[in-house]
């Protein structure tokens, strides 16, 4: 019965937001066509081979001109920089000096993306967020990241990356409430409804994780377990998922 109720709750959330939903777009979809980027995320999120991840990032920077335009090339390089920077603060021993070097390079590149663009907002939100993860003393970086996420979503509310950034920020807001969790859940579900068959693997893992955590915080433990395990199956190296799954195990 409990699982049935949980399923109905998810269905209701989905139906309520379907009628007014706008078509979800994805300006980052081009990244799926770059094998080296997929390989980099496999190393940073699955295999955990730091030296191999560094090598792949170098290969991305050395890629010859291709079908990517100049802006897409910059976006790709920034995504590679930030993916490796995140890995730097998760591996043992941590590679903080190298993470800072990568973030500095990414920030310089982000300055070429123009003002008030989707790519600029999202890149700088990610960069500032990682600076804050390196040290909570970088409070201004955390605030900047939050503001940039807000601008990305306000100006580009149908973009997959902007939606996921905003939904995730709502899950972890200091002023988190049941309503904000439900709203975040509905955003994840709408992206899944519209884009499931075309989402990049990394975005699908993000969506599954977000739904799972939202369900957990709302007390829907059955769906929380299912979605968190689905996210874990896509990318196994995620300490946060491990913590939530461990808590769920205690309830069994």
What does this structure look like?
The chain has 252 residues and is an all-alpha fold. It is built from 12 helices and no strands. Helix 3 packs antiparallel against helix 4 and helix 5 runs antiparallel to helix 6. The longest helix is centred in the N-terminal third of the chain and has 19 residues.
The oligomeric state is: single chain
Sheet with the most strands, sense and barrel status = none
User: Rg, please?
Assistant: 18 Å
In percent, how much strand structure appears in the residues?
under 5%
Low-confidence blocks of residues: 1-8, 15-19
The assigned structural class equals mainly alpha
Number of alpha- plus pi-helical segments: 12
Give the % helix: over 70%
Gross geometry? globular
Please state the average pLDDT score: 92
Q: Could you give the count of β-strands? A: 0
Distance between the termini: 16 Å
Order of helices and strands: HHHHHHHHHHHH
> How many domains, in number, for the residues?
2
Write the layout of secondary structure elements.
Elements: H1 2-18, H2 35-47, H3 50-61, H4 70-88, H5 96-110, H6 118-134, H7 139-155, H8 160-171, H9 178-195, H10 201-217, H11 221-234, H12 239-251
Task: Provide a concise account of the structure shown.
This protein folds into two domains: 1-26 and 178-252, Alpha Horseshoe (Serine Threonine Protein Phosphatase 5, Tetratricopeptide repeat); 41-158. It has helices at 2-18, 35-47, 50-61, 70-88, 96-110, 118-134, 139-155, 160-171, 178-195, 201-217, 221-234, 239-251. With 252 residues, the protein is mainly alpha-helical.
């Amino acid at each position: 019965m409990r699982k049935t109720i949980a399923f109905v709750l998810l269905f209701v959330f989905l139906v309520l937001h379907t009628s007014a939903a706008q078509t979800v777009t994805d300006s980052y979809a081009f990244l799926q066509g770059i094998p080296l980027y997929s390989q980099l995320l496999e190393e940073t999120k699955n295999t955990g081979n730091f030296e191999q991840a560094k090598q792949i990032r170098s290969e991305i920077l050395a890629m010859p001109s291709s079908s990517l335009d100049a802006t897409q090339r910059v976006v790709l390089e920034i995504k590679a920089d930030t993916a490796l920077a995140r890995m730097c603060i998760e591996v043992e021993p941590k590679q903080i000096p190298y993470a800072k070097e990568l973030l500095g390079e990414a920030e310089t590149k982000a300055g070429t993306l123009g003002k008030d663009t989707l790519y600029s907002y999202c890149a700088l939100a990610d960069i500032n967020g990682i600076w804050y993860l390196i040290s909570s003393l970088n409070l201004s970086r955390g605030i900047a990241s939050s503001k940039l996420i807000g601008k990305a979503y306000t100006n580009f509310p149908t973009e997959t990356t902007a939606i996921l950034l905003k939904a995730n920020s709502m899950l972890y807001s200091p002023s988190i409430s049941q309503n904000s969790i439900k709203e975040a859940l509905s955003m994840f579900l709408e992206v899944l409804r519209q884009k499931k068959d075309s989402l990049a693997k990394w975005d699908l893992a993000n969506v599954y994780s977000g739904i799972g955590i939202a369900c957990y915080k709302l007390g829907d433990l059955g769906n929380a377990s299912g979605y968190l395990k689905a996210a874990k199956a896509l990318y196994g190296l995620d300490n946060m998922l491990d913590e939530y799954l461990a808590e769920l195990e205690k309830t069994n």
